[in-house]
Design brief:
Order of helices and strands: EHEHEEHEHHHEHEHEHHEHEEHHHEE
Shape: globular
Number of domains: 2
Mean pLDDT: 87
Strand order of the largest sheet: 8-7-6-9-11-10
Number of helices: 14
Number of strands: 13
CATH topology of the largest domain: Rossmann fold
CATH class of the largest domain: Alpha Beta
Largest sheet: 6 strands, mixed
Radius of gyration: 23 Å
CATH superfamily of the largest domain: HUPs
Distance between the termini: 77 Å
CATH architecture of the largest domain: 3-Layer(aba) Sandwich
């Protein structure tokens, strides 16, 4: 049995309880106010479960929740699945009547409320790493999540205050989104006053049957499509929404899982698209500050717009998710005894002493300390 978001809204207040079964990573991108967050396995015996009320089970897309609700009904509970899941609830919220000045309020929060945490760090990265130059035409790539949406608003604000001219084009690539996911991205862009250009590809269909590292292949293919579209549109740069926490997590993942010391660079020249460059303007902005900005403005975004998420062949399987989650937890634990650990990880790749490195690569050529040891 299912219940639509519209019918749920009509239920008498206090007559039902929403159970959100999504994982921690998914919920970090947005949650339903008042929902009880539980894994599907822990619902029936949880002390906070209101057994005398209608239980509305929510997952990401309304797929896994159907089975969970059926199992609870077999236990004698009045349980139904939220049709379309969190994506449907979010879309319903976005389509409500909006304050005409909502986008203006969001913009004001960036330069006032979050000036130190977001705006100043954004402009510092632009200047410190020389990410934007006069005459640049930048394709600001929007995935639909909190990071890229904030980046788009920051670019809009920067153009208003910039001392030199540059152009931006807000680009959304649809690699095969479900109709609901695409609609959510479009509605969020409308709500925030971001004039997006959407172009389509068939990447999801291409990687769906790939068993080994489908998400990695998907990401690489997306990058190529974005470069190609941006170049044809007359742009010389693409901007991606990776933030400070992505950087330090990448450093540790490279060491612990890849046996190499590397980092996510603030900008890169493309090796396959001549004259194109990738920039990361959120490089110095903390993820917790992005979440604070999102919550302050009561914004809701999707974690992953992949239409296969709930069928778990790619983004939702434990192997793909566990490594980054493990790194996040490791950093969180280290911070308990060393409050400067995050900054130290970030700075470690700026303070590399080659005199104490056994071997390193430069332009694809491996150099070993023994090569010059006796000279």
């Amino acid at each position: 049995m299912e219940i639509s978001v519209q019918d749920m809204e009509k239920l008498e207040e206090g007559s039902f309880q929403i159970i959100d079964t999504r994982n921690e990573a998914e919920i970090s991108y947005g949650e339903i106010p008042g929902a009880l967050v539980l894994s599907a396995e822990n619902i029936k015996d949880h002390p906070q479960l209101m057994r005398d009320k209608k239980l509305i089970i929510c997952c990401s897309r309304g797929v896994q929740s159907r089975e969970t609700a059926e199992q609870l009904r077999e236990e004698g509970l009045d349980a139904v699945s939220l049709k379309g899941g969190y994506a449907a609830w979010l879309l319903f919220q976005l389509q409500k009547d909006l304050d005409k000045d909502f986008a203006g309020q969001v913009e004001k929060s960036i330069t006032k409320k979050f000036r130190k945490e977001i705006w100043c760090k954004f402009t510092k990265a632009i200047n410190q790493y020389e990410l934007i130059k006069e005459g640049d035409r930048i394709a600001v790539c929007i995935s639909g999540g909190k990071d890229s949406m904030l980046m788009a608003k920051l670019f809009q604000e920067l153009r208003r205050h910039s001392k030199f001219p540059f152009e931006v084009k807000f680009v959304v690539m649809d690699p095969g989104y479900s109709a609901a996911n695409r609609k959510i991205i479009e509605e969020n862009a409308r709500k925030l006053g971001i004039p997006i250009t959407v172009f389509e590809s068939d990447i999801f269909e291409s990687v769906y049957q790939v068993e080994k590292s489908p998400c990695y292949l998907c990401a690489r293919m997306r990058r190529g499509y974005l470069y190609s579209f941006a170049q044809k549109a007359g742009c010389n740069k693409i901007a991606l929404g990776h933030h400070y926490d992505d950087v330090i997590e990448t450093i540790l993942m490279g060491m612990l899982y890849g046996a190499q010391v590397q980092t996510m660079m603030p900008k890169l020249h493309s090796t396959n698209f001549e004259g194109m460059e990738l920039i990361r303007p959120l490089y110095l902005i903390r993820e917790e500050d992005i979440k604070a900005w999102r919550d302050y403005n009561d914004l809701h975004f999707i974690q992953c717009a992949c239409k296969f998420t709930d069928t778990c062949t790619t983004c939702n399987n434990g192997e793909n998710r566990s490594k980054r989650v493990e790194i996040k937890e490791l950093i969180r634990d280290l911070k308990k005894t060393n409050p400067w650990v995050e900054g130290n990880i970030f700075k470690s790749v700026e303070n590399v002493n080659l005199d104490t490195v056994v071997a390193y690569k430069k332009d694809g050529i491996r150099h070993h300390f023994l090569d010059t040891y006796d000279e």
